[in-house]
Amino acid sequence: MKVFFSGSIRGGRELLSVYQHLCSFIVSKGHEVLTEHVADPQVEKVESAMTEQEIFARDMALLEHSSCLIAEVSIPSTGVGYEICSAVQRNIPVLCLYRPGANVSAMVLGNPYVALWQYSTLEGLDTKVLAFLISLQAEIWG
Questions:
Q1: CA distances (Å), 62 to each of 101, 121, 126, in order?
Q2: Is 56 annotated as a binding-site member?
Q3: What percent of the chain has pLDDT over 70?
Q4: HAMAP family from the xrefs (predicted)?
Q5: Exposed, middle or buried by CB within 10 Å (0-12, 13-18, 19+), for 136?
């Protein structure tokens, strides 16, 4: 499957190692992450050479070709929220992951169209992501 991974870039990079882990894990399970740039420590430098319009066009085009969206939402990010909403509007399945104690928006927590999972460890994160991907494959190949 083609996975759109979403995580904070301009809102803060404190969870970069989690983003890198998630992207690597998804790829290790045979899926393609269309937005691996989110896990790139140099993404801000790369994107500084792009206009906001180019970033928007790239991300919306990638979302259009995605089978699902997986978002780490522990760090509040307007862009991540916009991507989640855009995926929901396109009927693209969404999984939102967050750490205990994170200040997650009520617009995400209260959204009946997204799957929400809290995680404490990377192993727990892997289990939840894998379960989500397997459930989507079962729906597709059902």
A1: 31, 29, 23
A2: no
A3: 98
A4: Nuc_phosphate_hydrolase (MF_03036)
A5: middle
Residues contacting 80, CB < 8 A, separation 6+:
6, 7, 8, 11, 71, 72, 73
Amino acid at residue number 67 = S
Annotated binding-site residue? 61: no
Closest CA to 19 of 76, 73, 86, 88: 73
135 labelled binding-site residue: no
For residue range 58-67, list pLDDT tens digits in order: 999 999 999 9
Question: pTM value?
Answer: 0.95
In CATH, the number for domain 2-141 is 3.40.50.450
Half-sphere exposure of 115 (CA within 13 A, CB side): 16
Q: Is the pLDDT of residue 142 over 70?
A: no
Annotated ligand binding at 84? The verdict is: no
Residue with tokens 């892997």: 126
Query: Does 87 count as an annotated binding residue?
Result: no
Q: Count CB atoms within 10 A of the CB of residue 103.
A: 9
